[in-house]
Amino acid sequence: MAESTSKKKGLGRGLSHLFGEAEAAYRESGIQNAAPSQVAAAGGSTLPIAFLKPGRFQPRRHFDETALEELAASIRHHGLLQPILVRPIVGASDSYEIIAGERRWRAAQRASLHDVPVIVQMLTDTQALEIALVENLQRQDLSALEEAEGYKRLIDEFNHSHAELGELVGKSRSHVANMLRLLALPEAVKALMQSGELSAGHARALLTAPDPEALAKSVTARGLSVREVERLANQAKLMRKTPPRSAGQAPGKSSAKHADVMALERDLTERLGLRVTIDGRGTSGVLAIAYQSIDQLDEILEKLTR
Predict the structure, then answer these.
(1) Of 113, 138, 208, 283, which one has the fewest beta carbons inside 10 Å?
(2) pTM value?
């Protein structure tokens, strides 16, 4: 744990050095539209926009056209206020790979800029991947799926725990865990999320449904709210788990109990950030908390013993 903590803090200092100091010097110089020699004198540099190439480690899969046009209009009026982080492409002259700032680069092209401010750093593939992911996650403009995939790549590539990821991007450990759960949804549901037909809130509600894909189709067809999806998901789950009522059983009592169970499940799920199910059997029953990693189990134990 000490090694991973040291690595995490090292990355934090690296991001501060790469972005904070260079961007501050750039903004304070007031030379957003100045000549390259002026920028270099102020501690920054510019490169022809044609020298820059999209990065291999870009976590974003979709660039919103409207947002790009709005950013391009701002750049035409104010200039590019924030430099782009790049690294030289080995074996290729006058070519630089974008590590952070591809959206700004695309908008600058639309704004017809010939040169753009840059921070040039010699970075390894490992550094480039981690910085690209963390920078995008911290800016909070990725889609829910892109954010979840970014977290997964950081876990797979660097063995970060959920708690470490939370500190890296300024999120809680439960938020990271809940976002990662979205990756377990069927591909058809994730496609609806990517197209914008399903919100992240709808997707989280679908996680508890026995058949998320079928319920997702109902959401898009009927325009259901998140609360309605939660209710339908819980109803479907209870119907699957509850045996048919015997002929001698009094009507009404069971359904009232189910409503209480559903409300309690929702409350516990929201409090813990993990899926909670309650299987009542008369006056006794079983309460189950679903977890997908040791970090999530550790978080549950922390909350129960706090």
Answers:
(1) 283
(2) 0.55
